[in-house]
TrEMBL record:
It comes from Heracleum sosnowskyi. Residues 146-222 form the DNA2/NAM7 helicase helicase domain. One of its GO terms (molecular function) is helicase activity. This is DNA2/NAM7 helicase helicase domain-containing protein.
Amino acid sequence: MLQTVMIELLEDCVSKHKSYCDSKNVNDGDSFLNYVREGFIATASSLRNCISTIFTHLPKTFIRERNYEDGVALMTLLDSFESFLFQTSLVGEELKEAYLLEGKFEFLTRVNVNIATFLHFKRESVRFLRTLMSALDELDLPTCSKDSIEEFCYRMATLIFCIASSAYKLQSVKMYPMKLLVIDEAAQLRECESLIPLQVPSIKHTVLLGDECQLPAFVTSKVASYF
C-alpha cells in the first residue's frame, strides 16, 4: 500500500538510499537529499490521489467523520512537507545525520531549525499515516474485482439513477432499502415498463412526473410493428 511505502521512506530512508547508491554506483552523500525529495514527490502524489479518490467516492457515513478529518489533515501536511523540502536550504549530510541520530540527546542539543522542522513533519506524517492505515483496515472495502466493487456500490448507495427497464437488477442485489421511487417522463413510459421499478421490494412511495400532452410511448422496432 502507498501508506506503507511512504512510512518506509520516512523511517528507513538511509538504508534504502544506501542500497540505491550501491546499485547505481553514485556518491552516497551528494544524492541523499535528492533521493528524499524525489521519493517523497513520487509517493506523495500517488498517495494524495488515492486519498482523494476514497474521500470523493465513498460516503462520509461509511468513512466516518474522524477518518475524513485525519485524511484532510494528512493531505495538508504532505503539501507543507513537500514545500519545505524544496524551499529551504536543507543539507543532505545534515538530513542524513538527523535520520541516524534522531532521539539522541547529544544530537537534539545542537540540531538547527531546518532539521527540527523536518523531523516534526516526518513524525507527524508517519503518525497520520499509521492512523489512517489502521482506520482503513477496519473498513469493509471491496476487492479490485468488478463484481465486488459493484456489490459495494449498490450496498452503500442511497440514491440510484437508472432507466426503467434496467431497474430489474435492483430486485436481486443487497442494498440500502429504497423507499421512494421517482419516474421521470412517465407519460412516455408504457404501463408494462413502469411495473419493473415498482417491483423493487422496499418501495413505499412512488412519484410519477410527466406531461400528458407529450408524445406517448412509441415503438421504433420494425419487427415489433408486425405484432
